[in-house]
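Format notes (please read before filing issues)

Several people have asked whether sequences and structure tokens are stored in separate files. They are not. Every record keeps both together, in the order shown below: the sequence lines, then the token lines. Line labels are part of the format and must not be stripped during preprocessing.
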Amino acid sequence: MALREPMSTRDPAAARWLARLAFATAAAVVVLLLAVAGRRAAALAVVGAVGLTACFVGGWGFLAYRGVRRWCAAALTLAAPVTVVALYVRAGLLWLVLVCAAGWLVAGVAGRAALGRTGRPDGPVEYETPSPRRPF
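Then the structure lines:
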């Protein structure tokens, strides 16, 4: 069993402020994306989703097949993110994608820190139960 810090050292006010920071950062990222990219935000999302899908399909193909098909899938896995980045650079939106990724990272770290300060036990309470006499 892991050692837990005493309840007196956990600050619920700090957890609330970290949760607020997480929500505010996530909202700011969405507002920034819509304000800067405008109508191109939908195209930005579609290009990213297609690239991510192609990368996952290539990874699955690399694990599922052998021979030439395997190496074609590996090439797809490597080429998909490179193509997406090239399209973002061509559209002049790479800086926006990097800023949004950093914002989502900050939001995730703040949310994780807020949940880590709740003072609740690590898991549900476990009870000892007798073995079943007739399992089926």
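For reference, the curators noted about this record: The radius of gyration is 23 Å. The longest helix spans residues 12-37.
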